[in-house]
Design a protein that fits this description.
The complex is a heterodimer of chains A (about 450) and B (about 500).
Chain A: H1 31-47, H2 55-74, E1 78-79, H3 82-98, E2 108-112, E3 119-121, E4 126-130, H4 131-136, H5 140-155, H6 158-170, H7 173-184, H8 189-224, H9 231-241, H10 243-246, H11 254-257, E5 283-284, H12 299-309, H13 320-339, H14 343-356, H15 360-378, H16 382-385, H17 396-407, H18 410-428, H19 432-444
Parallel strand pairs in A: 2-4
Antiparallel strand pairs in A: 1-2, 3-4
Chain B: E1 2-3, H1 5-9, H2 21-25, E2 28-38, E3 44-57, E4 60-69, E5 74-83, E6 87-93, E7 98-104, E8 109-115, E9 125-128, H3 131-143, E10 150-153, E11 157-165, E12 169-177, E13 184-187, E14 195-203, E15 207-215, E16 224-231, E17 237-243, E18 250-257, E19 263-269, E20 283-289, E21 295-302, H4 303-310, E22 324-332, E23 338-349, H5 351-358, E24 366-378, E25 384-390, E26 395-398, H6 406-415, E27 421-427, E28 432-441, E29 449-458, E30 461-468, E31 474-480, E32 485-492, E33 497-504
Antiparallel strand pairs in B: 1-2, 2-3, 3-4, 4-5, 6-7, 7-8, 8-9, 10-11, 11-12, 12-13, 14-15, 15-16, 16-17, 18-19, 19-20, 20-21, 22-23, 23-24, 24-25, 24-26, 27-28, 28-29, 29-30, 31-32, 32-33
The chains are: A mainly alpha (about 450), B mainly beta (about 500).
Chain lengths: ~450, ~500
Amino acid sequence: MKFLPLVICLIFCLVLSSQSKSTVSYLPENKDSIFSHLDKLREYQISNLLSDKNVSKKKKLYREKTKNIFESIEDSTFIFDKHISQKLNPILHEIYLSNPSINPTDFYFLINRSYVPNAACFGDGSFMLNMGLFFHMESDDELAFIICHELAHYELNHVNKKIESYIDTLNSKEIKHTSRAIKKQKYNRTNDGINLIKGLTFDLMQKSRQVEIEADSLGLIFFKNTKYNLGASISALQKLDSVDDMLFMQKTKIESIFNFPEYPFNNKWLKKEETLFQINETVNDYEFNKDSLKTHPDIPMRLVKLKMHENIQPGKSIKTQIREIKEILKTKHLNIYFDFKQFDFALYNLLLENENSINEEVIINTAILFKMMYEMKQKHRLGKYIPQPSPFPDEANLNEVRLFIHNLELKNIRKIGYFYCMSHEDKMYNNETFTNVYNFFKNLNQ
Amino acid sequence: MKNLFKMVLAIIPFLGISQSKTLEDITKFSLRNSGAIVDKDFDVDGYYFFYEVDKLKKKEREFAIQILDKNLNDMATKSYVNRKGTALIKSAFNNQALMFLMANSKEEFVELVSFDTQANQNETITVPVEKKEMRMLSLLAATNNEHNILFPVDDRGFVLNLVTDNKKMGYKLMYVPTDGRDPWELSSPVDAKEILTINPIEVNEKVIVALEMSKKSLLSQKINIKILVINVDDGKVLFERSFDKEDDPRLITNAFLSDNSEVILLGEYFDKGDHFMKDQSLGLFAQVNDLNGNILSESKLNWDEHISEKMEMKKGSKTKKNGYIYFHDIIKTQGGDYYAIGETYRKTASAGGIAAAALGGGNNVTQLTITDVIIFKFNSQFGIEDVTIYEKGTSRAPSITDFGSPQLNAHILKNFGAFDYEFTQRDVENDRFYSNFIDYERLKGEENKLAFKTIIYDDGELSEDKIYLDSESKVFRVFPAKIGHVMLLEYDKKEKKIDLHLESLNIK
């Protein structure tokens, strides 16, 4: 490393949120030093380009990539929580200590607030772990394997190779010549252009497939050196493979939770609308490869390859850190949904909690949610934040919650909020926040 | 521009913008037009975007139709090949098929392109249309928002409303079934001595109610109205009734078909010899007909006798502050009540017009001053029950002619969007209606505000909802959406970003 090592294994940040009531921080306290660190990492990448072709274009792209990360930080894409970092640290330390070849000096892990279980390596020493990953991984072992996989991407320099190869391909004589020739064509210009891009996409996908297999392979070597159970590599990948079906898998009991003797549940609130077509997915005559749209493509093939490396057997899992991270996130994720007005996610989770583990906090949050939805709907802003129901069968249970939210009229929200509070009044009479929300609905229903 | 090139980049997270301008250029889809797929009740079934994609050969083009559902979900993008200059004119949905009317004025044809419920394209229907016919068709579409060129018949088919160049201009209704039954055509007489146009306005599974208009020449302001009730099965006219100036002049504002297929006509009636375009009506009427054309009942409500009791304003008096009423729609509720929705207007002197005239300009010195929204409620016997006035800011529109009556100016200016009225959406299932207006609110001590106002009928009551269209940082525009909703286009001035979202209209 040519520059002074800035020791940021994890970024620990205190609350510096503009959203005063939130307990979640979306901006790091030491933002400037982080940005400056990422800038340095990028400049190091630029000074170590793999080839001397298209240098200015590559520099430009690297700078844009960093700028995008900065913008994402500024836009509150990530959460900064020292407790999560503290719980994640032991897993990282175990990987680093077991693999001395890895130099973690400049590593920087960002936690994305997305519910989609995913992770990414940005190629410069910065990595991203999604909040959804912590929810879907069941053991420290599984999480460790995913991290090992991302570290392998870094060690193999996959991202930078991909970026440079992408720029070199786009600027190759062949592509330039072909695209110029297409541009000069009088007829079939767009179709030929689309086919050219389809070809490039196919190549890109092929390469992606290959690098994923390579990262699995090296990741498995890193992982094998740790104390973790080797079988978790298989179970982690299997979970990611089925994630598109697993998200929002549980059906809520919306009809019974919002059914009150004085205000019975109205089936109209879940009535689906007629739609133009009876189809299960978007029909597009210009569509690219559908596999590319999957959250985690090619996992079945990766599993086969992974199993070829070792005789991997299921073993005993460690759940210490992941359990605690899940506990922390459990207290945070509703705040995140509230902060970003993701009332559909908030209601979905609260419905499950109302059914399975109702407590004072769940009751207060449900009541607050209805108050917030009322206020947003009144201002004609609810539709801006809550996607309209989809006509397709994916995420059916979340879709049902969205349907419910959008089918409710202002007067329904007003009454449901009121009767929900009334039904929990006896347990909550000494809770000030609850009383305030209840009074809000009492006034509306006078 | 929809750019497929950017889809490739989405594969690499945080990679940033594209690097090849050439590749971007050669994969551009050029947006030709877009619009809402709206039914007769102003309910939006979806939205379309029509792109030109590629030149395939000389005068042959590839287009793409992108279809969103009523919730703005991307449902389909379909390729469509036709001649250069083909335009998408109108769309409609009848629960069995989604139909698009294409037109090509140079190549002189219109084409019906439909998609079944699986989004597969059905066989197209091409109809040759002469240049003159196409011009007239375009004129009708451009000058009358309520002219239905393509009219859906739910679960049965579509009616294509074409212009024919006979001795004088006439019409041809082409019925295109989607339920496997037979097509039919209904044309105006080839030797008609007047220009004839038709507009289907109401339909059920048995009949289509259409308004036939006749006038001697294109510029003539003397228009006669005839109601035609047409059998959906075979296109035969079950009955027709003329509302001629000489016998029974009337302006039909709306028609409804009851559950037992009675045809209810609503509108304004006039004195014999008066003309609805130029003269003041005597009042409102509701006429119930059976399918043989027998008048089962008729109720008339005279401004002087009945309505003046309910409101201080006397219709027709030029000296009264409120002047005249322009009726935009008359709605029948499931309970049998009627609601007539109008705006008050009067003819006033235009300061700008006078100044310009004094300086030798050719401007008209009068204008229409449009003021409040007025809603009349009538019972099932058409007895007046209530009048509600919703105050709104004054709008002004320069008169088309200083010498014509205010009514004539109002009728013409209506087609130029001079009134603040936007549209009324009927929610038959919930027995509601939503009547929409634009209002420039003049507020004391505050900056004036542009607002989208909706008067909602629900459960026998009228209430009001309002969306302000300007704020310090954002500009909003409102477009029709599914029942009880509007589509808001939100422009963030600082971020220079556009956001589209559906918002429900709120019943207090």
